[in-house]
Structure formats: structure tokens, C-alpha cells
Amino acid sequence: MSKISPKTARKNKIIETAMKIFAEKGFADATISEISKAAGVSDATVYEYFNTKEELLFTIPEEITEEPVRDMEKILPFLRGSESKLRAIVQGYMTLYENNPLYSALVMLHLKTNRNFLKTKSYEKIRGIAHMLLTCIQEGIDDGSFKKDTDPHLVRAMILGTIEHLCIRWHLLGAPSNLVEHVDPLVDMILSGIRVKTHTRNLSLNIHLAGDSIPAENQDITVEEQKS
Amino acid sequence: MSKISPKTARKNKIIETAMKIFAEKGFADATISEISKAAGVSDATVYEYFNTKEELLFTIPEEITEEPVRDMEKILPFLRGSESKLRAIVQGYMTLYENNPLYSALVMLHLKTNRNFLKTKSYEKIRGIAHMLLTCIQEGIDDGSFKKDTDPHLVRAMILGTIEHLCIRWHLLGAPSNLVEHVDPLVDMILSGIRVKTHTRNLSLNIHLAGDSIPAENQDITVEEQKS
Amino acid sequence: MSKISPKTARKNKIIETAMKIFAEKGFADATISEISKAAGVSDATVYEYFNTKEELLFTIPEEITEEPVRDMEKILPFLRGSESKLRAIVQGYMTLYENNPLYSALVMLHLKTNRNFLKTKSYEKIRGIAHMLLTCIQEGIDDGSFKKDTDPHLVRAMILGTIEHLCIRWHLLGAPSNLVEHVDPLVDMILSGIRVKTHTRNLSLNIHLAGDSIPAENQDITVEEQKS
Amino acid sequence: MSKISPKTARKNKIIETAMKIFAEKGFADATISEISKAAGVSDATVYEYFNTKEELLFTIPEEITEEPVRDMEKILPFLRGSESKLRAIVQGYMTLYENNPLYSALVMLHLKTNRNFLKTKSYEKIRGIAHMLLTCIQEGIDDGSFKKDTDPHLVRAMILGTIEHLCIRWHLLGAPSNLVEHVDPLVDMILSGIRVKTHTRNLSLNIHLAGDSIPAENQDITVEEQKS
DNA sequence: CATGAATGAGATTTCATTCAT
DNA sequence: GATGAATGAAATCTCATTCAT
Which residues of chain A have a CB within 8 Å of the CB of B197? Predict the structure, then answer.
């Protein structure tokens, strides 16, 4: 569709390369020289596109996050029920991270704890999704799906914290990624902790007593136990 | 009791100061010169006690972690039941981190994602506790307290991830610490996801009595017990 | 003829300067800072051209030795007789050292005893000539010019040792250089020790008997004894 | 005999150790700390005995050279003839160096080219022997043993240079020492270059016999001895 | 005396960044 | 617009040397 100007291509190449190298070695240990060499341009050229090394670093998530965030914003309104939304967001995170290993390594290992990154536009966007997660939990509480005494911040912390923890283990210990396969177990665990129980769930003991003279075998006792 | 030699005192002072500065600025941005000045010694003196800047960094958790780890190892055998143990471990983590803000900042923001740190003795110890957590979850599964289909690794990831996430938010965003007050909510959330339900818990008892003489308003007894 | 790029010129300037300062103060006592200042560049610029201080040191002989070694290799095949060759090599050494006082000071005072230098390509080249010297002595032995019981290694040690000793005295004691004027005396001394004696040398016994009755053809008795 | 005070023993131990380490690594690369540790004393103790690192270095040859120099001075007067003396001196050098490998390594690799060493008392002594060598050559010239046109300095340079060269090769290349076995070949080579020829060598004897009855005093006997 | 402990003074080396071409 | 070349500014680390105990 849209032609990519050679200039844009070059810029993307630099960003791509920088992501890789920053992810591997961290900001401090990566050098512009190394990046430029790997990207096939000169040091000076990097500075044509980015004013400082840090600007280069912070541009990376901007580029990567844009589309997924937009997608998520589009999808969520179509989903009914807090649970579905919550599950979708978790799915979104996991998919994004698993599909972009370099990006997730960069974010998890180096960006997430970078104080300057907090002042960034990229961080704004990311916070946006995190906020949607919070909102969605709150909605669940408000509409009675989730328990009234649920602490939305704690729940969000659990969700994000788990994702982050799994991600970091993946990158640091070389554990198999399989991020996405954790979506359901995680969400189920969370939901089981905050969902308001309905009759049909958990233990439902229904005893129909028809009167004294009714023989035992006619008494209707139903025990339904569902998976939590 | 035991006299602290001036040498030890000096070493501790350096470690203390280093922890503070490393925690604030990270490993790369902190300089030995800054640390030594803040500790009231010369650069060279720092190198009397630590062979490299990195060794200084890695010595910090060693010093801090030793006692809490030992304590935890002593306490756990006295606790009965996987739930108690699990709660104790979470409590231990949260307390350690909350009582040592500099330490927790250092670990969460800088050490946790440092690849060299993984090869460290300190990391060994820390992994030790994490392993105890896993063991304790497994025990719960084995003795029937926790559901058979529980994924211990996921549960652990949720616990540790949540703690880490809360810790990082605290340090990075200056959110109020209050780490410890999250212990119970967190543990309860987790338990509600893995605990095998007993009658007295999570019970919905619906008794439909069909007897004539019974007044209508009494015919339906619903007992709902939610959340322990 | 060939344009010298400013880059090459700069590099040469650094090498030149380094040679001077290394020769004067030795490797350890010379500082990059001093060299760069004297060469009119910054410290960092020196490191643009040479990766380490030691690499700078070892580059020097490489640059200097190249031409003379090539020349010697070209000349030798044109010389007839081991004596001429031997004399030419000595002449070559002495000329090289005398014409490049900085270089000879560096080699004699600092490089010759540097263990790392032995692993160097420069050292390879230098060893090349030393080997040619050995070969040439051996050839003399094989073709009967030099005594059969000559120890070529000793002879070479004498030649090189003498050159080195003279060179060191020159640089260390400020004795007048005049290296080249020692070529002939040295070579003659050496040759007198290894040359196979001819008629006019060593023992010639000529007896002229003037008696009448002696047949003319008997009047001349010549005893020639060769080889001492 | 003479009791060695513990103080002297300690000093000797330091000197011994320093010799070893200086010989191995050179002055610049050896550290006081390393020496003191190897000698079993503290850094500060080294400074009790020697004011500076350099003073320690320069004390070494003083200690080692003293006895051999005295011995040589005692022996020489007993020897008759320049050749014997010359041979004795060479023998002395070679023996000293071969018997004290650490010392010879130190001198040959590190001390000989140290400009400050030239101002040292130790160097004075060493120069003393070198001067004796020169004197002895000169004596040989004066008494007619050696050729009138001998350049004593060159001869001495040849002798010392050869010894040094062999010594350096030994230490640097790990060539087998066998220094002493080179004494005779070396001296013979030298002598063959400077010795005035005697009858049995290099002799031209021309005898003109004019007849039986010719009185002996009329017989023409010419003895020509040519420079070799 | 011997030494543990401390440090002043540098030295090498690295890099982000600039600028003339 | 792209870059080769240069460098200012530091930072880590080392060690000879001192001094109080």
C-alpha cells in the first residue's frame, strides 16, 4: 500500500537493531557504535534520526506499542461482560509479548524500571491499557459480577505482576515462552477469587422435602459441584 | 555484645551507602567516586574491600538477605498446613521488602534483571526461598488441601509477580508502601483459586421443602456462604 | 608520488612520536597522554588508531622494519660468497640502527627483552634476518669457506651480541654512534676465527736450494699447510 | 660462623624474593604487594628496609655481585698471560650468570637497560670487571701477545655482547643454558682474531740454501709472519 | 619493629556526541 | 543527507607509599 521511503526504512532498521541490542545488553552496555554497525549505517547517521541515545531507546516502544494498543481499544467495546474484557486484555498482553520477544525483553528487563521512561509518551500509552484493565475490573464490581470488596488495584497488580514475572523468567532463564498458554489458567485463578458465586457454581445442594410420609427414595436430592 | 571492628564498620558503611546510591541511580549510573565520597572514604578504600564495582553490588543482597532467609527457614517447620506456610512466606517477603526500602528498590529495579546476578550466591539464597514457596504449594496439592489441577509454578509466579509489581510501583511511582497490608488480600485471592472447597466454605445450600403445613415463606431456605 | 591521506599522516605522526617517547622512557613510564599531546592529538584519537597502548608499541617496529628487511632480501641473492653475504648483513643491521636512532634505542633498550614482543609479527620479520645470518654461516661451512667445526649459533650470537652491545652503549652512555665503522673490524674478527686459511696465510714453507747438482725441478720445495 | 641476625635474614629473604619477581615480570609489572606477600612480610615492612621500590631493585645486584667480583679480583693477579686472564674473566661471567639464573635474568632483561641503574654503586662494581677485561686486552696488546691494531673496545664489546646475547636467549626463549660450555669456543674465536701468530701457526718460512759449503751465517733464512 | 589500613595521584580506556566534507 | 574522523569528559581500577598502633 503505502510506499516506505528509504528514509523511513532506514529509521526502522535502526530502531529494529537498537531494540535487539538494547534488549540483549541493556541501555548502558549497548553502544551507539555497535548499533549503527549492526544497522549498516554510521554513528553519525543514527544521530540524524535521534538526538540522543536515550531518545532512540524511548522511540522503540512507541513504534511497537502503537498498533496493539489501537487494536485493543477497538476490540474491547465489542466485548460483553467484564470477564470477557479482562480475559481479552490478558490475552492481548501475552500475545504482544510472546510475538515480540525482543520488545518484551527490552520492556521487562530494561524499560520497566527506567525512571526516565515514566515521563515518556510511550509509557503513557502503556499506562492506558493498564488503566483499561483497572476500569474493566471496576466495572465488574459495579455491575455485580465481581465481589464488592474486591481491591481493583490488587487484582490488576496480580494480573500484571504475573505476566511480568513469567515474561522475565522466560527471557532471563531461557524458560520456554508459552506465555499465551497461561492466559486461561491465570484468568481463571483471578476470577475464582473475585467472581461473585452463583448457584450453579460451587456447591449447590438442593433438597426437596415432600413431606413426612414420603419415602426416602422419592426425595429429590441433587448435589451439583462445578469446577471452581 | 560482639564488638564491631572499625574495619567491619567501615565495610558496612560502604555497603549501606552503595545500596542507597545503586538503588537510586542503578549500577551503571552510580559511580564509585560518588559512593566513596558519600561513605566518607576514598575511592581506593572501596577497592580495599571490594575487588570490583560489581562485587560491591552483589555483596549487598548477600549481607541483607542472610538473616531473613535463616529466619524463614527456622519458622516454616513450626507451621502446620500449607496455607499457613504460604501465608508466612508471603508475609516474610513483604516484611523484608517493606522494612528495607533501599534493598527492595535495589533488588526490584536493578538486580532482578541483571544477568550476572543470576550466577551469584546471593541469588542462590533468594532462589532458595522461592523454592520453598513452590514446595509448599506442592505439599498442599499432595495432601489434598489444594486442587489437584493446580499449576504450582503459575501460582508461585502469581505470588512473586504480585509482590514484585507492588514493590516496583511503590519505588517507581512513590505510591505509599503498605506492602504488608496486601499480604492477606493477596493470599486469600490465591487460596480462593486453589483451595479445595469444604462444606463450610463456598457453600450454597438450597433446601426446598414441599410439605403442606409449612408456611410458604419458610419453604425456601437458602444458605449462601461466600468467601471465607 | 603517492598522496598520503591525512589519516595516514596522522597515524604516522603518532607512531613517530610514540617511538620517540617509548624509546626515551620505556613502555611503562611513557603515558598515552604524553604521546598524544606531543603528537598534537587527543588521547582518544590515539585509541582510534590503536586499540591498546601495547598495540601502539608493537606497531612501531612493524612500520620501521618492513623496508629494510625487504631490501636485504633483495640484495642478498646478488652477493657471491658467504663472506660477502655475512658482511652485507652486518652492514645492514648497523646501517638500520645508526640511521634510525630512535628505533634502535626502542628495540635495544625496551623491545628486545619484552616477552610479549616475541609473539609479534614484527619479531617474526626480525627473526627472519637473524635466520638469514645463520643460513649464510652454514652455507659457508658447507661450501668449505668456513671451518667445519664452526658453531654457527655461536658465531651468530657473537655478531648479533656485538651489534647489540655497541648499540646499547651508544644509547645508554651517549657514546658516539659510529656504528657503521665497526662493520669491517667486527666482520674481520669473526672471519679470522672461522675462515679456512689459504696459501698466503697460515703456514707457507718455501725452501730454495741454490746447489749446482740439484736439478732445477727439485730446487723448489713448497709445503703448504692449510687449515690451522 | 657469623650469626645471621633475624633482621638480616628477613632482609635477605625480601631481596631474594624481589629478585625472583622482578626477574620474572620486570620492574614496572612487579608490585611491592606481590613481593611482600611472597616474602611473608607486610608491604610496610619492605619499606622498613628499603626506602623505595627502586632502591629495592638496585640493592639486588649489590648483594649478588659482591662476592664474585672480589673473587675475580683475587684470582686474576695469579694468572700469567693475557689469554689466561681473558679466559678467566669470560669463565667468571658465564659461571656467575649460569649459577644465578634469577640474577642473570634480572640483569640481562631488566637492569642492563635501566638508565637509573647506571648511576648505581652496583653498576660501578660491574663496570669494574668490564674494565678489567679491557685492561687485560690492552695488556695483551702492549706485551705483544695481541696484535697491535686490535681495538680493545671492540673486542670487549664482542665478548660481553656475546655473553649477553646468549644469556638473553637463554632466559627469553628458554633455550638450554649451557652458558659455560661456550667459554672456550668463544674465547678461541676471539683469540684467533687478535692473537699474534706463533711458529706453529700462520707461519711462512722461507729458507734459501746456497750450497753445502756455505757457512751458516750466509744462508738466507727469512721468516715472515703475516697478519692472519 | 612490624603491620593493617588508608589514600593520593594517575593511567588506560570508553563513548556519546559533534562537525566539516 | 550521510559519514569519517576527532575528542571532551569520565570512570574504573592500581599501587607506591605513609602512618598510627
Answer: 202-203, 225, 228
